[in-house]
Amino acid sequence: MKNLSTSQHHSLLTTSSTIRQDQNQGVLLQENQEQARCDWDFALSTVVSNSSSVIGLASDALGVTEFDPSGALLATGGIARKIRIYNLKSLLSAGSGNHGVTFLDHASACDYYICTPAKLSSLRWKPGSGGRVIGSGDYDGVVMEYDLERKIPVFERDEHGGRRVWSMDYSHWNPIIGASGSDDGSMQVWDPRCEGGICVAKGHDKTVTYARFMDHHTVVTSGTDGCLKMWDTDEPSRLVRTYKGHVNCRRFIGLSVWRSGGLICCGSENNQVFVYDRRWGEPIWVHELESMNCVGGTDGFVSSVGWRQVDEDECTLVAGGSDGVLQVFVGKRKKMPFL
């Protein structure tokens, strides 16, 4: 058996794994040789748009798309001050995603809607409510909850001192806590049973636009500084990882996490959908949506995304655009070859 010299041994250790200091955040990050890879095949299944002949009205913009915990219902909201509820069965037809694309109209595809007092920036279904309660964050800086059976608001809270609430989320583990991001550049974690906040994480250079729970102690945030960040809420100041590749400096492009699949999705100001694996800081899948010029001559962009939290080997991803068009993608895990 051959013995490795001290220099050779040091070289192998350096090649297999390197540790660098992130100068911007002062965090030690472990970088393994394993490269970012995509274990999924995605295909466009359904496109839902307005029947209006005028494409890209500002009031059409989809600011948020959100599946209920069962994966059977989809809620959307935005500038139009409406929460629209869709049944997934009406959006996915048998065989779509494999042999063709289904085209639908919002008016016929939507089951019902609820009017809201302000423009909506965020929607989240409340865990444990059986799909009956949905929470929202709005342009007036208010977090609200709506009873969908009675179609009325049942909870209201101002967490950011009147500053606009761009995002809110619930944990899916007991105790159920909430998180919200705001103009003040912070992410607040709060308990509805308590008056004060639980913790505050600051690290984005600009507005925190979205906050999403990946698991009971991990939150992913997005900001207009052009990056996503993963935080350990057990240690609020600890940054786990930064994700870069998409374009985001002034618009709201959506953020969603698929918890069981470990995937993160966001839009981009260049009208692309980006998917990241939580393990790597680079995107594993990028898809450009068909470009449509909005009213006023501005280019469209991806303004909302959402994962269906069902299955482990199959997934459903929705992306909403500033033109009001909703696109549904189906994904299947690639079969790994036997070695």
CATH architecture: 7 Propeller
How many β-strands, per DSSP?
A: 27
Strand order of the largest sheet: 7-3-27-26-25
Distance N to C terminus: 27 Å
CATH topology assignment:
Methylamine Dehydrogenase, Chain H
Give the overall average pLDDT: 79
| Coarse shape | globular
Work out the count of structural domains: 1
In the CATH hierarchy, what is the class?
Mainly Beta
- The ordered string of helix (H) and strand (E) elements is HEEEEEEHEHEEEEEEEEEEEEEEEEEEEE
CA-based gyration radius: 21 Å
Major beta sheet, specifics? 5 strands, mixed
Helix content: under 10%
Number of helices: 3
Overall SS class: mainly beta
**CATH superfamily placement:** YVTN repeat-like/Quinoprotein amine dehydrogenase
Strand content: over 45%
Low-confidence stretches: 1-32
GO biological process, one term: response to UV-B
Organism: Heracleum sosnowskyi
Protein name: Ubiquitin ligase protein cop1 protein
Keywords: Ligase, WD repeat
